[in-house]
Each structure stands twice: as C-alpha cells, then as structure tokens.
Amino acid sequence: SYKNWSFGKIDPRFWKFQFDWKYIYPKAKRVLCISRLLEEKFTKKGVKVTRIPTILDTNNMPCKKSKELHSPIKLVFIGGITGGKDELSTLIETICNNNLPFEVNIYGPSELAVYSTLQESIINSSNFKKQIHIHGFVDQPLIEKIILDSDYGILIRPQRRSSHAGFPTKLGEYFSAGLPVIANDTGDVCLYLKNMKNGILLEDNDHASILKALELIMYTDKEKYCEMSECARKTAENNFDYRKYLDNIESLLK
Question: If I label 115, which of 44, 47, 50, 203 is the partner at 20 to 30 A Cα–Cα?
Fold first, then answer.
C-alpha cells in the first residue's frame, strides 16, 4: 500500500516497489514467504515456494505465570499505526464512551500519531485520561515484560491488500507469552487464531463488533481465560517455533 511510505503515492520508493513486485521478484528461483497470498502469487509464476508465517524460539520465551486478570483488564497494542483510523480509534471510542473496565496501553506510536487517528472522534475526555496510556517508543528488551504484564493483545489491521500479504509478527509474540489476542480477520490470522479458543475474533472493525468482543472478555471467567492462555502458548509452540521449519528450509535451499 502507498500508505506504507512517508510521501504516499508520490514517494519514489512506492513506485520502485511496484516495479520490483511486477517484474523483478517473479524472476526468483526460490521464495521464502509469510502468507498464502504471496505463496499463490509465486507458485503461479512457477517459483519454488516455502511459506513460514513467523519464527520464534519458544523454548526460550517466557509464558505468563499468573492467570489472574487485572482490574481493570489490561489490553496492549504494540507496533506502528500504518492503517490510520482503523487500527485503534474505534476501540478507544468504544471503551471510553461506554466506560468499560479496560485499560489500554499503547507502545510504539507517539501521542501525536494516536491523536491524529482520533480527530473525527467524540470521546469522553476524562475516561480517556484514565483508561488510555500512550507510552511511545520503548526498547525491544522491555517489550517482553510489557506483554507478560498484560491480559490481551490488540491486533486490528486495516482491510487492504498489504495486510493480507503480510503476517503480524506480534501474533506469535503474544501467543508465545500466553496472551489471548483480539484481532480482525486479515491475511492468515484465522489459520491460527480461533475465536474463544486462543483469542477473540472481531466480526468487523466497527463499534458494534468491538463492543461485542469486549463484552465477551468482560464475562470470561478465570477458568476460561486460563484455557485460552494455555491454548495461545500451544499455538505458538506448534506453529511458530523455528524447529518446526528446519526441514522446509533445508528443502528450499537444496
């Protein structure tokens, strides 16, 4: 998407990518890709393809020990805002305007970036100050502790072609930490996220869908949360640990 570049459609890097995407990349003999969309594209061109969504060393990644939910429930968003309004604003509006028992911690985007997505929103300002915490950039070593001290990860991506071509590495990191994830259906997310098994799948990004998901979380008891947390960890171990892909990589290289 042109939105991934600073100057949008007039950014030379966008047009360089478009050229490479159509004429250069399909000439490759072998491709390691992260989504079914890319796998299908290159397979149609006769390229040998191996698909690996993301890789982790789950044996050396800690998992949540305490399955006690915080009060208010802690949601965490880590990453950049590349999709604009779609990624956070509706969630923030829904929590603040309904005074729901959630705390949202946002890491990565600056305050200015978050506020810019809320320009057209009408939000209860006192609730916003109490419930929404914008931390900006933090060093990667701190991210692990932040995730372990949260209850649910947020992964809401815009519905556009680049979302379906990519794969969110944070999904693997959240799951590995035993963190259920609130996400919408983009790309290959639903190959791994199963509603009420290891996370909450949004029907859409609108207020009604987000409110429904948050109410589900509010009425999820400790026993069910423990099940979801354990399932999230198992999903990471079974699908994202690098050891699962050693044979695939060897085959691709040979």
Answer: 203
